[in-house]
Backbone:
């Protein structure tokens, strides 16, 4: 592949742009704060004390590094590529989300903020945020759509146990985008004392870059672990993409390695052609939402349309701007997996590896199922096992309960 | 003066004439906000056409958006009512065109979010808006950092780009906010969304005074203004008072289209009377 070098370090530019994507499309009230955050983050990035604290919490609190595990049975099952799972589900709170939350809460402390807010879809980011807020003694308010509250009740309870206040969001479809609107409204109203921990590589600059940097620990570790195991880089990387934080975290440290192929898997819902999906790159067009320009699900009048996915964490009508750019650069291939394919891969992972993955993660595994069989055993494929599936038991029982003689949880 | 401001000011705009005349009358402008297409097209048209007679000096017309991040519940619901009844960007521009057939003086400012404009196509939007008779734009999610997107092209079409200054706009930030501003400056009285809490009077007056030291443009104040009393107090020292959510609430609470029109126009009349009288009293505090 003939890619420009230094894809990874040069972007975003000073205005937060990845090519034509990204930016700072926010209300003026938020601009001074966003500029301040940008400065604070730039300082923290080069501050050895901040980095020391970050490393400490990533290690002793989150449990990093997460293993890079050779999935022998899954490899045998598909009969092709050697499949490695980057075990982000073993992190404290059960997903990659906490990598970012630890970084942002440290920044919030540094900036003297007194209150934490966040949006959540699947509830994993909400749980991770509530967790770090508890750990750092900050009051925490989580916005969550009513549809998601319904399908992720375990996580709602977890957040409450951790001391967070959950505010149900009824507007729109009651999913992630509506929760984000409401969190932005809270932020603009409480701009003086509140830190908004955005859960994915979306939002206005500096969030997409900052969240990416905090998640890039996934890719850095993977790189070292693979070099240790095989003395070479992996051949392909696969991750599911909602907003895109677990994917960019894995991909980013490899962007300048042209031989490493990267595949992002969007939620195909009932199929991209059906119109009921959450695949912004495969089924959307460029637009501006939640502070950045990216690909969106929208009608021709620029009204955002509803996303659909079996997985609450992927049920978002946009995608991080860096992914939009990597898509147009053709550096990363973006595909989609349907609800049904994800459910199938979910079960295969349970049965073959004894690992219950999150439904989000199951989308990445569905792509592995399509791709791995035709590849040789020497092909080293890394899948980001972004989260564990305990939170999804209710949804899965709803879809598969009959098969197991379980009616309801 | 920047080249952009010059382009705009070559021929006198409706906004300039409006503010010049009100200055002579020594009173602030009453600016109304309604969402285009709320609750549906025909009632929205009647609402719009009746505003000047009811006493509105400048019309803000909202372009509904599915995800109005800077708006509170009242205007969110207005946008949904409009969109559910089929409102589009094209229909909003058509509303302005029809209004202009019978009114050539009252300035109209379109207010909204960038995405529907971006999707319509910036050049096509500006051309259509200009020929429909739109005077200005307020686009909430386009800070000066993105002036090349719409603010600068708008100037070339003779459309003012009205900038928002807010309680968080400090001395360091203000020059950037004012740089390409034209038409008037919209001072957002509270950090928050539309329809929220009322501004604190003392702090507001000093903020407006400070703003005035830095710009010759008229200063409008909006967000959280609901009553004739508030409008009068703020109208003493500002050049315009914006009322939105209170009007939009009238539409939500009306049982019939006729009732919506009556309620909105009667609140407008009340507000209009109040801003017309607010600088007349000799003892300003009583006002
Ligand atoms: C386990 C898991 N994976 C993936 C995602 C999707 O987010 P992102 O694309 O930002 O990684 C989520 C979001 O909730 C999640 O919980």
Residues:
């Amino acid at each position: 592949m003939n890619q420009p070098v230094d894809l990874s370090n040069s972007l975003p530019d000073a205005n937060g742009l990845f090519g034509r994507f990204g930016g700072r499309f926010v209300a003026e009230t938020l601009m001074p704060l966003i500029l301040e955050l940008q400065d604070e983050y730039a300082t923290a990035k080069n501050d050895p004390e901040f980095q020391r604290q970050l490393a400490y919490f990533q290690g002793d609190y989150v449990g990093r590094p997460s293993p890079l595990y050779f999935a022998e049975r899954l490899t045998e099952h598909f009969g092709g590529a050697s499949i490695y799972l980057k075990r982000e589900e073993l992190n404290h709170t059960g997903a990659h989300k906490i990598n970012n939350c630890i970084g942002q809460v440290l920044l919030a402390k540094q900036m003297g903020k007194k209150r934490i807010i966040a949006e959540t879809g699947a509830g994993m980011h909400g749980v991770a945020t509530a967790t770090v807020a508890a750990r750092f003694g900050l009051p925490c308010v989580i916005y969550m759509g009513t549809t998601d509250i319904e399908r992720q009740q375990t996580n709602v309870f977890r957040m409450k146990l951790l001391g967070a206040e959950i505010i149900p969001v009824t507007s729109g479809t009651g999913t992630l985008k509506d929760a984000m609107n409401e969190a932005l409204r809270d932020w603009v109203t409480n701009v003086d004392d509140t830190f908004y921990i955005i859960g994915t590589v979306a939002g206005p600059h500096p969030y997409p870059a900052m969240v990416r940097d905090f998640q890039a620990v996934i890719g850095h570790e993977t790189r070292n672990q693979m070099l240790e195991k095989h003395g070479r880089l992996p051949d392909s990387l696969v991750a599911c993409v909602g907003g895109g934080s677990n994917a960019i975290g894995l991909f980013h440290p490899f962007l300048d390695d042209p031989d490493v192929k990267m595949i992002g898997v969007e939620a195909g819902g009932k199929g991209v052609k059906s119109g009921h999906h959450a695949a912004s790159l495969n089924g959307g067009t460029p637009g501006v939402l939640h502070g950045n320009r990216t690909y969106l699900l929208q009608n021709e009048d620029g009204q955002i349309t509803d996303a659909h996915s079996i997985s609450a964490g992927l049920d978002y009508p946009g995608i991080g701007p860096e992914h939009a750019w990597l898509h147009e650069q053709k550096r990363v291939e973006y595909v989609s997996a349907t609800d049904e394919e994800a459910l199938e891969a979910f079960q295969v992972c349970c049965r073959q590896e004894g690992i219950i993955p999150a439904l989000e993660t199951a989308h990445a595994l569905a792509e592995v199922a399509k791709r791995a069989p035709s590849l040789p055993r020497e092909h080293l494929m890394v899948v980001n096992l972004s989260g564990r599936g305990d939170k999804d038991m209710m949804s899965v029982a709803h879809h598969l309960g009959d098969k197991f003689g379980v009616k309801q949880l | 003066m920047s080249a952009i401001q010059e382009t705009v000011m070559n021929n006198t705009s409706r906004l300039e004439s409006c503010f010049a005349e009100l200055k002579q009358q020594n009173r602030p402008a009453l600016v109304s906000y309604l969402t285009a297409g709320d609750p549906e097209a025909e009632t929205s048209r009647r609402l719009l056409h009746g505003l000047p007679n009811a006493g509105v000096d400048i019309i803000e017309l909202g372009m509904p958006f599915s995800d109005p991040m800077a708006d509170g519940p009242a205007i969110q619901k207005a946008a949904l009512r409009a969109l559910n009844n089929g409102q589009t960007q094209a229909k909003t521009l058509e509303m302005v065109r029809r209004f202009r057939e019978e009114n050539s003086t009252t300035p109209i400012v379109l207010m909204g979010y960038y995405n529907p404009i971006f999707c319509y196509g910036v050049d096509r939007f500006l051309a259509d808006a200009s020929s429909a008779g739109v005077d200005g734009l307020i686009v909430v999610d386009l800070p000066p950092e993105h002036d090349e997107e719409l603010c600068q092209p708008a100037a070339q079409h003779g459309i003012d780009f009205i900038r928002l200054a807010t309680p968080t706009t400090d001395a360091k930030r203000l020059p950037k906010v004012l740089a390409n501003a034209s038409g008037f400056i919209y001072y957002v009285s509270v950090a928050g969304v539309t329809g929220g809490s009322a501004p604190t009077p003392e702090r507001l007056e000093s903020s407006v005074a400070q703003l005035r030291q830095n710009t010759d443009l008229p200063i409008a104040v909006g967000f959280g203004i609901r009553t004739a009393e508030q409008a009068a107090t703020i109208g003493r020292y500002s050049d315009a008072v914006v009322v939105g959510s209170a009007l939009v609430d009238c539409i939500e609470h009306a049982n019939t289209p006729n009732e919506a029109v009556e309620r909105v126009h009667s609140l407008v009349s009340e507000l209009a009377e109040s801003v017309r009288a607010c600088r007349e009293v000799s003892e300003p505090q009583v006002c």
The longest strand of chain A covers residues 261-269. Chain A has 16 helices and 14 strands.
